[in-house]
Design goal:
Length: about 120
């Protein structure tokens, strides 16, 4: 049983490493650095020509929903005018970034860095 758990754990680490590695490469291509802010990623998604945008009005407030798929990367963004409400980035079916304005205390201008799980035990 312990061997199968270790195999499962190793497969999970490999999958997360692939996801984080792919996200790092993509963010480097967007920002020319190994990290990016939530704001930079949101601007990338908003301005990308392949982004699908849907707008809905709730209680007189217009919410915009953005979805973008680029290779293995999937982006989902919700905004209320200029305010970022939610940002999700997935790579290789793993969550890389999950920002929620109502929960996260960091500024949207705080750089997001990705862990290197190569040495994680």
């Amino acid at each position: 049983m312990n061997i199968s758990f270790n195999n499962l754990l190793n497969k999970a680490k490999i999958g997360l490493n692939q996801a984080f590695g792919h996200a790092k490469e993509t963010l480097y291509s967007i920002t020319s650095t190994s990290s990016a802010t939530v704001q930079q990623i949101a601007d990338y998604v908003r301005n990308h020509p392949d982004t699908r945008v849907t707008r809905k009005e709730f209680l007189g407030i217009t919410i915009s929903f953005y979805e973008l798929s680029k290779g293995e990367m999937r982006y989902y963004l919700e905004t209320n005018n200029a305010k970022i409400l939610q940002l999700d980035v997935h790579s290789h079916n793993h969550s890389v970034i999950a920002y929620r304005s109502y929960r996260d205390h960091l500024s949207v201008n705080t750089p997001v860095k990705f862990p290197d799980l190569q040495d994680a035990k």
